[in-house]
Amino acid sequence: MKQSIIDLTELVLVCLCQTVGPHMVDYNISIGMLCRIIFFIFSITLRDVRSFTWSELWYQIGAWAMFHLFVICFEYEYLFKGKSQTVKREARYKIFDTLQSGIGIIYSIYNLDSYYYYIFIGFFSLNCLDNIIGLLIYWRQKEKPQNHVQEGGIMEFFIGLTLGSLAVSGYLITIIVLYWFEIQEIKNLLFYLFLTVVGELIISVFSCCFIQYKENSQKIKFSKQMLGLSYGLNFGLFSIFYGFLIGLFIFITSIILCLRNSTSSSQVHTITE
User: Fold this and answer.
1) Which residues cross the membrane (predicted)?
2) What's the sign of the alpha-carbon dihedral 179, 204, 156, 96?
3) What digits encode the pLDDT tens for the residues 28-37?
């Protein structure tokens, strides 16, 4: 079947790589995920950590939550079971990408203290326009990509998750070292950061256990591997927001277990007497 080009990313892929077929959507989404990683890194490194406001944090959390909902609700079936409803995946990704680009525009307008953010506004605006045009073309097409089954990507997902969470751990440890005295002046902040680092390390260990996941290498396409890796990296980097919750859970669980053991020991001691 002839491959229809519906956006700039697909045009570049066809021109440079001669990439055609239903797996093109995997490359398209992977490139979008890598762009998110670049923006996330820039938005963190371009700013002094001490200058972040609560409103900026909520923008980041909103984009984080939207990404997780998209993968869990719409991409889980393909990523872990290999069943691709290509038409729906293409449309859903473009809608999700447009919404996230809107958040990116608002976030960049809020932070016009660097010329980088003017570039981000232009990029996100162009991306929104590209998605809208792509959706209109896509819905008017008579011939659409066929659904297919594609194995692979699971091991790469957990590799990306491990690398992303380790990168966050390294970043937080660096922040603690660089701003040690400022952090000590803020009540409980060091404790919160410590819990987050613990949570990130637990995520890393947990995901490492799944890296040995066995897949039929003869049926795996690079597009699915790239998609799995990009999703894993995004989950790993955005885990900075729930690494704290995991660390807090471990801390509370440890306290409960210690109290239960202490109570049990006291009861045994009383009976012995």
Assistant:
1) 27-46, 58-79, 91-110, 116-138, 158-183, 189-211, 232-257
2) negative
3) 888 888 888 8
